[in-house]
Amino acid sequence: MRSQAHYATSINNVQDLTIFATIVEAGSLSQAARDLNLSLAQVSKRLSKLEELLSIRLINRSTRSLSMTENGQRFYEHCRAILQGIQQAEQQLKLSQTEISGTLTVTSSNTFSRLFLTRIIIAFQDLHPKVTVQLIEDDSIVGLVESGVDLAIRQMVLPNSSLIAVPIASDHRIICASPEYIAKAPTLKHPKEIGAHDCVVFGSPLITDWELCKDGEFITVPANWRLSTRSGDATIAAAIAGAGLTYSSVWATSQVIEEGHLINVLPQWRSPKRNVYAVYPSRSYQTRLQSAFVKFLKQQIRKLERGLQNGVNTQDLCHPTSGPLAYETSHLPKPSAS
Fold it and tell me: CA 295, 299, 303: angle at the middle one, nearest 5?
């Protein structure tokens, strides 16, 4: 950083420049005093002090008239530019306090981005045209600080993490398969029978032990997998193609179940509830843009959750042309650490 001495000046009070410029524009000391709500003596004294600091006569004055010197004219032009620059800086700062703008870098899984997040982002940008978003679709865990990411949407938070995690939704996994697979596969009425089926597993590390619960009963069954992927989209595609059972998020499967490509084969059983989080690198540097987007995201997700519970087409719910959910732009409550 350069030394502040680089900007050293004899003038250390912007009001002196304001008084001088007002005198020039008013044409008299008395009128300038009235415009500035100061006494005539104060205005005269500040002008004399400014000339003393600069060692230059700026205004020739007599009992009847004022006239600028050549140096005073040049100095006035500079003063006007300086004061206008300060005024513009203040206006821009005030505008930034009311207008949401800037660039936000967000990462989420491929499936969640494709089905929901992209549409939510577009709806947010419709409300805030000066916002740009860089969306990183990645099923792996992206390092927020190392990758310069402002916000991550995750269904798990690393233990002992210094990141800040805010729950935005709930989620659970269900057992799905295609109608074609079900037609040729052994019967499946209880999770204990999963071992007799082909399975498609997903994750890094792979989720091979499938946890399910119903009415307080919990069971963990090992998946007899023949195909594994590191992509949620690939897992769903394999299941639709008839590769076997999947243990997938209700968020990822809602659309294809509605379209009839997959069936929830054990509708009374589901995994224990888990949260979906918005994750920040640091609470200290949380921007107004981050806060506004997460608040909007939470409200849209709640809307989608109600759709999932009621069997409504979630694609319609989060489509920007259907009208984004109205929301307040007040600051979010402080997020709780995970």
Answer: 165
- Which pair of tokens denotes residue 325? 């959910």
Angle between helical axes of 14-26 and 70-98 (0-180°, round to 10)? 120
Report residue 194: phi and psi, to 5°: -60, -30
**Closest C-alpha to 150, from 40, 273, 306, 290:** 290
**Predicted local confidence at residue 318, as pLDDT:** 40
Q: In what order do the strands lie in the sheet with 151-154?
A: 131-137, 102-108, 151-154, 274-280, 164-171
pLDDT averaged per 10 residues in sequence order, the chain, 338 residues: 58 87 91 92 92 91 85 91 86 70 90 91 94 89 77 72 82 95 94 95 89 94 93 93 95 91 96 88 75 91 75 43 30 30
3 state DSSP class of 248: strand
- Residue 221: the pLDDT is 96
Question: 96: how many CB neighbours lie within 10 A of its CB?
Answer: 12
Q: What angle do CA 85, 86, 90 make, to 5 degrees?
A: 115
Cα(83)–Cα(293) distance, integer angstroms = 36
Torsion of CA 102, 107, 109, 113, to 10 degrees: 10
Give the residue from 198, 203, 256, 207 showing the smallest Cα distance to 229. Answer: 203
